[in-house]
Design goal:
By secondary structure, this protein is of the alpha/beta class. The chain has a single domain, classed as TIM Barrel, CATH 3.20.20.150. It contains 12 helices and 9 strands. It has a 9-stranded parallel beta sheet. The protein is globular. The N and C termini lie close together (11 Å). The protein binds zinc ion (ZN).
């Protein structure tokens, strides 16, 4: 296992962590000032400053990407599936332009939440089938663009509205069915917040191996958690044994960035420099 205590060369910042404190250009500047080598931006943040400016700002700051957030949200009414397909293809193209190592997929839940405006539907099985079809279709396009897709299983509390793939096992089953060769075109993003509770986690991380482990996201699980979406904890403030999880991921072959991804009203209320300095300190001591 790599020693993170002496520096933060393997720290990446998911830019949602400081999204309220400034636009993407300001976040890139701040990360560069703090000696952070990588970020993972969101599509809306890129769109807000323009793709070309984002590409230029990243290059000028010498920042790498650890991923691009996000594609997916596949379940939709039949008449809107072309729109979903095209939107996801644009996400692949943006990820390629930005030099991302993978496009993260949050696959969607029931249609009316995945794509607002769709008809209400309670058929989670149908949503999961639609997700599989959607990934299969996008994978062809992504292969052409040489952009790996990383399925991110989300905690089951998001099954209705964000992702009906909720375990690493389910995500890897999809990978094995859709990309049996395992050449790196399709894999998973392991986010500690979403998978830490799973009693099958160690086995599934080992099963994933180096070729499927495309991203590793960290934050912490607070007890109690007061908001389903925006109460993630800073590493070290909650109950996840992050060093143990990182040891498992690295033993399986992962050697990339540990990406800090915190959606939190508490951390959004603090100055960007303070949040980034805290991320660096906790990366050394709690990850
Ligand atoms: Zn994540």
């Amino acid at each position: 296992m790599r020693d993170f205590s002496g520096d933060h060369r393997w720290l990446s910042v998911n830019t949602a962590t400081v999204r309220r404190q400034g636009n993407l250009a300001a976040i890139i500047d701040a990360c560069a000032r703090h000696g952070i080598r990588a970020v993972s931006p969101w599509r809306d943040q890129v769109a807000a400053i323009g793709l070309e400016r984002a590409v230029r700002a990243l290059r000028d700051a010498g920042l790498e990407l650890s991923g691009y957030c996000r594609g997916g949200m596949f379940p939709a009414d039949a008449e809107r599936r072309a729109e979903v397909r095209d939107d996801n293809r644009r996400a692949v193209d943006e990820a390629a332009a930005l030099g991302a190592p993978c496009l993260v997929l949050v696959v969607g839940g029931l249609p009316q939440f995945s794509r607002p405006g769709c008809r209400p539907d309670k058929d989670l099985g149908a949503a999961r089938a639609r997700v599989e079809d959607g990934i299969a279709e996008l994978l062809e396009y992504a292969r052409g663009a040489r952009m790996p897709l990383a399925i991110e299983p989300l905690h089951p509390m998001y099954a209705a509205d964000r992702a009906c793939v909720n375990t690493l096992r389910h995500a890897l089953d999809l990978c094995d069915r859709l990309d049996p060769d395992g050449g790196g075109a399709l894999g998973v993003a392991v986010d500690a917040y979403h998978v830490w509770w799973d009693d099958d986690l160690d086995a599934q991380i080992a099963r994933a191996g180096r070729r499927r482990l495309l991203a590793f996201h960290v934050c912490d699980w607070l007890v109690p958690t007061t908001d389903l979406l925006n109460d993630r904890g800073m590493m070290g403030d909650g109950v996840i044994d992050l060093p143990r999880l990182r040891a498992r991921v690295e033993a399986a072959g992962f050697a990339g960035f540990a990406e800090v991804e915190i959606f939190s009203e508490r951390w959004w209320a603090l100055p960007m420099d303070e949040v980034l300095a805290t991320c660096i300190g906790r990366h050394r001591t709690a990850v």
